[in-house]
Structure formats: C-alpha cells, structure tokens
# Entry
Amino acid sequence: MELATVWFVLVAVLWIGYLALEGFDFGVGLLTRRFARGDTERRVLINIIGPVWDGNEVWVITAVGATFAAFPEWYATAWSAYYLPLVLILLALIGRGLAFEYRAKGDTERWRRRWDLVIFAGSLVPAFSWGVLLAGFAQGLPLDANHDFAGAGNDILTPYTLLGGVLTLTVSLLHGTHYVAVKTVGDIRTRARRLAGRLALPAAAVVAVFGGWTVLGYADAGASRWVTGVCAAAAVVAVAAGAVANARGREGRAFAATFTGVVAFGAMLFASLYPDVLPSTLSAADGLTVDNASSSDYTLTVMTWVAVPFVPAVLAYQSWVYWTFRHRLGVQHIP
Amino acid sequence: MDVLELARWQFGITTVVHFFFVPFTISMAFLVAIMQTIWMRATPPRSTRWLRLTRFFGKLLLINLAVGVVTGLVQEFQFGMNWSDFSRFVGDVFGAPLAMEALLAFYLESVFVGVWIFGWGRIPPKVHLATIWVTAVGTLLSAYFILAANSFMQNPVGYEIDEATGRAEMTDIWAILTNKVLLITFPHTIFAALMVGGAVVGAVSMWHLVRGARQPELAEPDASSDAGAFRTSLRIGAVAVLIGGVGVAVTGDTQGKVMTEVQPMKMAAAEALYESQQPAPFSLLTIGTLDGREPVYQLEVPQLLSFLATGSFDAEVEGINDLQEQYTEQYGDGEYAPNIPVTYWTFRMMITAGGLAAAVALWLLWSTRRGRAPTSRWALWAAAALPVLPLAANAFGWIFTEMGRQPWLVFGLLRTGAGVSPGVGAGTVAASLAAFTVLYAGLCWLWVWLLLKHARPGLPDVSAEARWGERGGSDDASGGAGRADDADDADADRPLTFAY
# Structure
C-alpha cells in the first residue's frame, strides 16, 4: 500500500477515534441539562467524564495535525472553506473545556448554572457541527483550480451535511447515555437505560437514512460502494444490537455496540471518500485526492516512523486511564 | 483593514494571550511536581506543609492549564483558516512537528493531568506523583516541537523547493529538529517560562506573608504553619525567577548572535541602526522618531552592540540601509525592514521587564531574610507587580521576534502577504477577529479573577489526602468508590476524596 493511503487510513482512524471517544462525552454533556436531576446528579455526570474528556479531545487535535502534516492541501482548503463553522466549534470547545474546570471553582448557584449552560451548548454545537463538516468531505465542495473554496454557506449546509450533523448529534447522545448506564449506580443508571431504549430507534433510523444516502449518492460505483454499503449496514446493525443489549441490561455491551456503530459510520464516510479527500463539485479535475493533496514521500516516511511506536503507546496509556477510573459513581460518592 | 491585516491582528492577539498561559503552565507544572515529590519523600508531620503547598499551587496550575489548553486549539486551526496558502507552502515541513506535538506531547499532558486531578485518594500515591511529572515533561516536549516549527519560519533548514509545485518539501527532519535557532530559542523560552511560574509562587507567598504580618488578627487559625510554609514557597519562587533570569540572559545573548547571523535585519531593526557601523554602540533609550533622522536624545553604550551581535567589541554591525540594498538585489524590489519602533521598543521592554522581575525576586529574598516579614505597602505592590513583569517580558519577546521577521512569514521564502487565505473574505475574518478578541478579553479577566480568588485563602486542609499518602494508598488503591461494584463492602458508598 502506498504511504499516502496509509496516512489516509490513519487520519480516518484519528477522526473515528475522536467521534467514538469524545462522542460519548458530548452525549454526557448534553445529558447534564434535563436528564440530570439537581446539582449532585449533574456532578456525577461531570465526574464520570472528568478524568477522560481532555484526553478524548486530543484525538481531534491529532487528526487535524496529522492532516496538516500528511495532506497540507486538504487541511488548507477545508479549514479555510469551513471558516465560520470552525469559529463556532472553537468557541464552543473553549467554553466547554473551561466549564468542566471552572464550574467547581466558584461559590454561587448562579456561577454553576451559567457554566452548566456552557457545558450543554459546548457539547451541542460541536457534536452537531463535526457531523456537518465530515459529511461535507464526502459530499464535496465547490473548489476552483487552485483548490480554493469558491462557494458560499449553502454549499456547506446542504440537506445531506445537515443530516450528517443530526446523525453525530443523535448517536453521540445515545452513546453518552450508554456510557452513563455503564458508569453510574442508583437511580441515574436506571433512568439512563430507560432513555437509551427510547433513543435507539431514532438513532438507528438516522444512521440508516444517512447510510443509504451516502451509498447511493456519494460512493463511486464498484468496490468503494460495496465497502461503504457494508460499513453503513454494520453501523445500523451495531445501533440495533446496542438497543437489544440495553434492553437485556447488558450495559457494557450496549456501550461497546454504539462504539462499534460510530466506528462503522466513520469508516463508511471515509470509505466513500477514498481515493478522494475533498472532491470538487465544480470540476472533477479540481478536487483533492490522496495523491495530489499528500506530502512528499520523505515526510510521510518520517511521520510513519513516529506513528508506529507512538500511536500504540497512546492507546495503551489512554486505556490504562479508563481502567484506573473504571468504577461506577453515584450520588453517594459526591463529597 | 484588508484580510491580511485582520488575519495578522487575529494571530497576534490570540497568540500573545495564549502565551500568557503557556509559560505559566510549563513552569508551574514543574514547581508543583517538585513540591509533591518533597511531600512524598518527607515524613509527617513536617511533610504536611508540602502537601498543602502542592494542593494550593496545584489549583492555580489547573485554573491556568484549562485556559491554556482551550486557547491552544485556536492556534492549530487558524493556520488553515487564515493562512491557507502558508499551510500549502510549508505544510510538508511545518505540519510534521505540529503532528508530533499532538501525538507525543498533547496526549501525555491531557491524559495524565486528568489522572492527576481525579487521582487524589483513588490511585497509589507514587503513581499519582508520576502523573504530574509526566504532565510536566509533556509541556516541555510540546514547547520543543512548536518551537521547531517556529524556528523553521525564522531560519528555514532541511528543505528544498519543489520545482513543479513551488512548495517547500522536507528533506531532513534532523536538520529541522536541530535548527540552530531552535537549539537556542528552546532554552531561552523555557527559562523565560520558569520566571513566570516562579514569579506567581513568589508573589502569592509574599502577599500571604505580608498580610499575615500586617494584620495578625485576620490570620487563619492555622496561621503560624501557613506563614512557615509560605516562607518556604517564597524562596522556591524567588529562586526560580532568579535561575530563570540568569538563564534567559545567557541564552538571550547567544540567541542575539545566532539571530544576527540568520536575520541581520531583525537585529539591526532592534537597534534602529540604519548605517553599518564599526564598532556599533547599543542605545539604552532614544527620544526621537527612529526613522533614521537624528534623534532628539539618545543614551548609548559605546561598542556594546558589536559585542552583543558578534562577541567582539570591534566588529562591524550591518545597518538597515545596507541590508535593504542587499536584499533588494537578492529578492527583488520591496521593503525588507520591519516596523522599526516596534522592534526597537519591544526588544528593550523585554529586557527591562525581565530584569525588573529578577530585581524584585532578589528583593523578596532580601526582605524576608532570617524570619523577617515586611509590612510596608510597597511589599504588597512588589508582590502584585512580580507576576506581571515576566509575562510582559514573554509577550514583548514574541512580538519582537515575530514582528522583526517581517515582511517574511518564512524568512527568505514566503512573504506574509503571500500566506493569507485567498478564498476568505474580510468580513469573515473581521467577524472572527471580533469574536476572539471579545472572548479572549473575557478569558483574561476570568483567569485573573479566578487566580486571585483561589490565591487569597490560606493553605487548604489536606487531612484526607494526607491519610491516603501515609497509607501509601494500600487499602485505598481503588478509591473510595472503588468497590462500588462490590456490594458487601461497607466502604463502597464512601464519598470520594476529590470530585468536581
């Protein structure tokens, strides 16, 4: 396999890792608003993601950094095209990160309520927007001969990409609800299971519609369409399997199922994209592909040498953290 | 303003503010790690003081770290958003250290600081101690890689220009990671960072000592041990500022010589030296326009610039006019001098602020010698000024080196105007500049307010953490909530030692 393709896969893996990991902490952030009853329950939710959310967020920093290093054209074109949505995402992520840390550092009820609002909005905006932007890759953008974005907002916000946003939002919420069921004890755990049961069908429906749309509308005929189709089907099956596991009280399996669902969804998007990385809707020749957007072989080789030992190392120590904080929390544990 | 100016203002504002938080995090992470190490190695009850200091300054570290982390996101994104042609031109070279920073440093920092925050009382103390050290090392690695990227812009090495695409391609990663500008800028930046953390520790300790001495009746019940602990931390902070100050001066001297070699224009601009001179004097201050006309008044040290730039008191230093001629020949018509008043004054303000910080730190040590505690209002002012000085020095240093590189974005290869995103409109950038400026102003206010709020109370009660430390976490290794799965355990519902 060519190095550029290896890096396409690695970038895909980083994005997928981000969606699967920060996806659930976005979901938990969304649940702090209405689902949590009172301050103590809200604190339970914050504390089950407290030790891990920041590490989860590094996945997107690395995905973007790896894109910059391995596909500078992709990074430059997409990030200047996605300017305003990215400003929104940045504002949301800045607020959210501060909220987790600062919420506990004030004394008044009002202080905490404000930060609670920031946690909710800061989870809502990126959980939706990243779906829009990633679906935008699969859909393509109007790019001119210099690979610069030559369109307007409605080229980014299309029915397809908006559905992509709805998908990442809904699935993150379901994924987060499964996480709460796995990580808590008491009433909150029971309610999380009940809520997950109600969310499963809408989530599966969105995944099915978006998957079908991607397969028929945005995957090239041939092998790419087959792989995309299999991934789409796997995503739907995974969400359904999560619902079954949840109904049987197998919370760990339900969480693993939505994790798999997110992975399958991400694999589907990137499979439909390959060998393009950002197609142009104006002229096929102006689109960015794995070949014309990638860095030199030397740079890719260097980066491969760095990634080979360090990606597994990161996985190892991040897994250790999840293991270290594996125990369930309930309202009784909040000091 | 056009897109270019707006994009430059956004980069300047977001970067300068981000860099208030960065040096604070780097140095405070190490200082807190050192305090926690001493706590672990000492025996109770003496060790308790160190635990309380760790918790106290650890909280300040976290308030700062949070805002440093989130503002860092903007940095990574805006290369692509505002500077897409720059990203295309250098991505092959510049992206690699950025990706390495994420993979090698950000994961370490973010993952392990989470364990440090939530690990109190839940994991074995020795493992917990290791997490703060790993976090601290992560901040150093991060600084190294991002400075490698910046040093390429200051002094491009290890690349060639691809003829077909006209873009820079990496040919030698080791050359990039051992760029001579990087090798001197890294220690300079780290010493400058050490001054910030040291100043915060020293200033907060001084404030508590003075307040305790001025108003003994207001002191906390535990005041006598608080005073003792703050006396110790004051020494740590002041000594850190002094070590940082000496280090910054020594490395800064070398850096000036390296910079004279690779960007003589920047150093000529730092002196507003228009005509080449042999030997060249260094002006401490100038009253005048700095545009080459005779100044109204100038205080000069003869031959000093020759020494600073080359190491010899008699050497010739090239002036702006000669360099302008030389560059015009080399790169074609154009203006090759940076904004002279900005480079001239930021260079001096950097040195002055850093020097004053070291002087105040020295005075802190002197005024608290052998059990003394000053009670004058001046002492409080000194404490208030101390952290501001090295922060200002850091900011001036960066403004100097980045503004001094103009008109280049990548020295000798890419002009700043050629790096900006061609497809992005001025309205878009203006909206984002406005949003980030307002947000960052708010962040600064919030940051100062929270730091003051949490620096004001005395040292915290740490009895729960102390018990955990003494037991070595042996029967507590899995945490208060550790056995929540095990319904038989009476402790299963015990509250956590720490939670948000």
